[in-house]
Amino acid sequence: MSIFTAPVLNYSLLAPILIVLAGAVLGVMIEAFASKAIRPVAQLSLTLGTLILAIAQVWRIRHQSSLTAAMGSVAIDGAAILMQGAVLVIAILGVLLIADQEQFTVLAAAVPGSEEERESLESGQKLTEVYPLTLFAVAGMLVFPVSNDLISLFVALEMLSLPLYLMAGLSRRRRLLSQEAALKYFLLGAFSSAFFLFGAAYLYGYSGSVSLAGIRDSVVGGSGNDVFFLIGIAFLSIGLLFKVGAVPFHAWTPDVYQGAPTPVTAFMAAATKVAAFGAMLRIFYTAFANAYWDWRPLMTVIAIITMLFGSFVAIAQRDIKRMLAYSSIAHAGFLLAGVIALNKAGLDASIFYLFAYGIATVGAFAIVTLVRDSTGEVTDLKRWAGLGKRSPFAASLFATFLLAFAGIPLTSGFIGKFSIFSAAYESGNKAIVVVGVLSSAIAAYFYIRVIVLMFFTDPADDGTSVVIPSMLTRITVIAAFIITIFLGVFPAPLLNFITSLAYFIR
What we know:
Distance between the termini: 33 Å
Main location: membrane
Number of domains: 1
Membrane topology: Multi-pass membrane protein
Number of strands: 3
Shape: globular
Structural class: mainly alpha
Largest sheet: 3 strands, antiparallel
Number of helices: 20
Radius of gyration: 22 Å
Helix content: over 70%
Strand order of the largest sheet: 2-1-3
InterPro entries: NADH-Q_OxRdtase_suN/2, ND/Mrp_TM
GO molecular function: NADH dehydrogenase (ubiquinone) activity
Subcellular location: Membrane
């Protein structure tokens, strides 16, 4: 007769996750019972308050570590704290952008172009369900980098993915494109989850354990079937590489980035990368560290192809959101260099890069939301010509974010790329450094091409204009700009903070 053992949880260490989950549940309750008039303010206040309170809890536990916070399923350590903090900061900026409800349809279930949709748009109502969906996604993103076994990893993966599938289909305009993006993201995400589960099953067959510590012990002891281990690594990696948009698992990225509402694209592009790379760093730096020579060659090839593919294909793009999507693919390749480095410098550089890239990404997409005509957002690059003359403020900020993506000095992107390439060089991965520098040079071409188009081309009389941003969008853009420049000019405080805190417990 088996005896049920009550779980022992450390609520203090789990506080950031629990607070966000509680906020999400309260958001659902507001949707169910609050009047439509007070929902927008109530949901925004609740969401921002939840995220700020969660950041305060992350700061409180920053020097604590534990493998027993949730009976071995969660690892709280310095790297986990940093990843959670980055996700929460990016989420706050993303929520401020999402609060500009101009981007969202009112009735997502309505058939595009139908009378029902027209009436819902004319009603003046706002879509407030997006706030609890965002909090549920953030909760999954907080669990993903701290998961210490394969079951927790899968649960966190689904928790962060399912709300994003829904949010990608909520665009107010270009409804069919948005719904197509949501469907593609869902179907391909389901396939990647299946691969992840398949890999988890093989790793369990190899080690007899679903915990990262148990898998590591089997790797060190060499007690399992190596074929099972290699298949397990391969399929588990497919699930993770899909989330970060690495080649050849990138097919969803440009379509979803283009079709989803731009605030959702900003949040998804920035925060999901932090969470997914956080999980990937933990897995490869702990469970798979002693099998370095088994997975390094293939991961190196994937990183190189991802950098080159993202940089070359971005040149041919004529849509600003698709260009930024392929840019994000190239950045996934740069970040894989930090995973492959497998050293302390690689971990530090990856965390800094993820935060810096995430902030600049939110800022760049925030500017995209401001360029509109009578039908809505303008993403055709040709119609961005002369933007610097229409709105020097918006064009200058967008140019700053593009220069950060290119890795130009005095921006956070330069510090991030220099740090991650230095870590790769220290680990002996010279091929990745050479290809990374080459890819950065290629990427700089299409970033600077957009800057030239904005500032050195006469604007056409095509109805394109830059709207005056709302206060919340203005806060997002200015905060992203300040952080991007500050981290490029004075990176030492954050780098030192990361270096002192970033570690994985085993």
